[in-house]
Amino acid sequence: ASDVYKRQPNNLMQNINSYIKEHKQRFLDELIAILKIPSISADSAYKADVLETAKVIKLSLEKAGCEHVEICETDGYPIVYGEKIIDKSLPTVLVYGHYDVQPPDPLDLWLSPPFDPVIKNTELHPDGAIFARGACDDKGQMYMHVKAMEYMTANNELPCNVKFMIEGEEEVGSVNLSKFVAANREKLENDVILISDTGMIAKDVPSITTGLRGLSYVEVEVTGPNRDLHSGLYGGAVANPINVLTKMIASLHDENNHITIPGFYDKVENLSDAERSEMAKAPFSLENYKDALDIDAVYGEEGYTTNERNSIRPTLDVNGIWGGYTGEGAKTVIASKAYAKISMRLVPNQDWEEITTLFKTHFENIAPKGVKVKVNPHHGGQGYVTPIDSIGYRAASKAYEETFGKTPIPQRSGGSIPIVSLFEEELKSKTILMGFGLDSDAIHSPNEHFGVWNYLKGIETIPWFYKYFTCLLYT
Ligand code: BES
Ligand code: MN
Ligand code: MN
């Protein structure tokens, strides 16, 4: 097999399209079976399901031709590892993905149950889309790699070595994976890391993700009086923690929607005008954007476009806020405590731990007399940017050219995959983010879905990446 790479890519892969055609139904059925297991990593009630999913993934890697497939235990959910080493002198691709999913709530907004996958047509997916939690993020996208692997091994088309590492804690911060990576550097040695856990601009506008934002996630707690109080007897005379919390949160942005935390922007990289105008070339319709979300205007930091606001600029958002009475009818009460969960999306160079400290200090500083404030950091991670002249990027670009007939556009994403920067630190390799989801696929939302066309296009494109990566490394 070691001379496979010497063959030219154009002579290969004649069969990928016919293989997909022939096995399409099975590819869908297998994914649907995986989507049926509610592998919600955030909720311990689903522990058995998360563990069961790991076993199913292990089996699927074995069937796809991986060897030494194992379930690697961690202090949390296990990592499924498998590899196929055909020749140590050939390059090695490390595939990463996650088998855990976000909680599906609010359940009543799902048109079909989140763990009972159905295929329905939509305007953007006239060939059908699979509706289920995890369809796009990330079971569907992860499984494209398993099926691409199956194709390559079944047809003797695997041009290099492969390692698979599929984890079960991405949606809760990958804390145990970080330890696993640091402790297994040799085992995970590779020439490039390949991930499908992002999106692309549109089905006719392929793109490769070249950046991810970092993240700092904190929970805050404001405590007023030692018990809930009658809002008539005490109202107006003591600090109401909910009033105070909302006021404190409101003060975190100024009138231009800049974040007011001292030092927050110190390390933010300012893109040159040239880079910004390059970014602005990506096709984007503000009208369609607003229509898709049913909003009459966009909102954000003064001086930046929508695409800049959601990719190259840092943000601060409340993700949840609670306290007091929220049941039916009215209850006259001043709650003793109020809470909020806050995420800050960061850009490369901002250090997430430093930002967490800046937030904590500032939030404690702005607390008025009469309340106590606690800031509890959750998790976080660094942002990531990758150049477009690396062999990995060029290989991916050529792969898309083969299957989309177009050169993909490099695009920085607003989402986060914190482990990616750690991969670079620990394993010294670049990550290529070949995402096939659409922003409208509703990841983390009710009615998450993944286009059947996108799923199959991913399976078709991935083997080309292997071929070009191997060829480019040897020429
Ligand atoms: N796959 C997403 C991240 C993503 C989606 C990046 C689309 C770019 C485009 C990932 O599963 C995710 O949701 N990450 C979390 C962070 C994590 C620490 C919980 C996120 O971005 O909120
Ligand atoms: Mn994901
Ligand atoms: Mn996610």
Supply the key terms.
binds ligand BES; 475 residues; binds manganese (II) ion; four-stranded antiparallel beta sheet; 20% strand; globular
Structure description:
With 475 residues, the protein is an alpha+beta fold. Helix content is 32%, strand content 20%. α3 packs across α12 and α10 packs across α12. The longest helix has 22 residues. Bound molecules: ligand BES and manganese (II) ion (2 copies). One manganese (II) ion binds next to loops.
Task: Give a short synopsis of this structure.
The protein is 32% helix and 20% strand. It is of the alpha+beta class. Helix 1 crosses helix 3 and helix 1 packs across helix 12.
